[in-house]
Amino acid sequence: MAKPLFRSIAIVSIALCVHQACDAAASSRGVWRCGSTYTDQPCKGGKPVDVADPRGEADRHAADNATRHAETQGAQMERARLKRETEAGDRDRKAAAEARRMALAERRAAAVERLQQARIRKLEREPRKSTMKFKGPENRTL
Fold this sequence. Notes:
Blueprint: H1 2-28, E1 31-34, E2 37-39, E3 47-49, H2 57-125
Antiparallel strand pairs: 1-2, 1-3
């Protein structure tokens, strides 16, 4: 008979110890507002803050699902943004390369044009040289 009574007393005392430990842990896990910051340690002039979640299990589950959904959408949006930025960067690099090619072609064309103009000016300044075939008016026979 002593054994069942001893077991009952042991179970009750263990339950009381667990209950007291939970109460002590809950009271030490409080949140304090210290000025404009929050901490889990009491501070001078700090005020305890009640952070208990009044929502039910269904509400918490719905909020967790909404958070996961928002995170998934955010990740998708980030990937889409990064893809657009990469494509825009590629377009910009291609456009810059094309602009450099066009500028080089324009410079080459301008250099060729200047060279041709210089040749024309030079030919206009120099008198034409006579050739052996040219016969002046004094050598003409009528």
